[in-house]
Design goal:
Radius of gyration: 17 Å
Strand content: under 5%
Keywords: Membrane, Transmembrane, Transmembrane helix
Largest sheet: none
Number of helices: 4
Shape: globular
Helix content: over 70%
Order of helices and strands: HHHH
Number of strands: 0
Distance between the termini: 14 Å
Length: about 140
């Protein structure tokens, strides 16, 4: 990872905020439309997209071509597994639209929320530790 004090701040501004754009858009739509239902505020696909953005940014940042240490390889491997998990969750989420009674939506919501929060905290910890090393 580059030795840059602004790395964590840039990650927050560019990666986290970009990942949250679908949720912000949904919130704006809810505020604008008169007959909007409260249920539109939470979408599994938005949560999964947020997690995918975080996982893919980790893959890009810690890929084998960028770093050769064990920690970077571990972060890379965990991020690959997480992107696979998100992709599977997205497939199930899409399938639940086609066949609403085939999938329990609360399981998709809980799984995607837990996964996205986990990768957010995991990546935050990585950047925080990296920042401490370079101070």
């Amino acid at each position: 990872m580059p030795n840059n004090k602004l790395t964590k701040r840039r990650w927050l501004l560019y990666t986290v905020i970009v990942g949250l754009i679908p949720m912000f858009a949904r919130l704006i739509a809810f505020a604008i439309f008169k007959k909007a239902q409260l249920s539109i505020l939470l979408s599994e696909s938005d949560i999964i997209t947020f997690g995918l953005v975080l996982g893919i940014s980790n893959i890009q940042e810690f890929g084998p071509q960028r770093n050769t240490n064990i920690t970077a390889e571990t972060i890379f491997a965990i991020s690959i597994l997480y992107v696979i998990f998100c992709s599977l969750m997205l497939i199930v989420s899409i399938y639940s639209i086609i066949e609403p009674n085939a999938v329990r939506p609360e399981i998709i919501q809980a799984g995607s929320a837990i996964g996205s929060i986990s990768i957010l905290l995991y990546t935050w910890r990585i950047y925080h530790q990296e920042e401490k090393l370079h101070d």
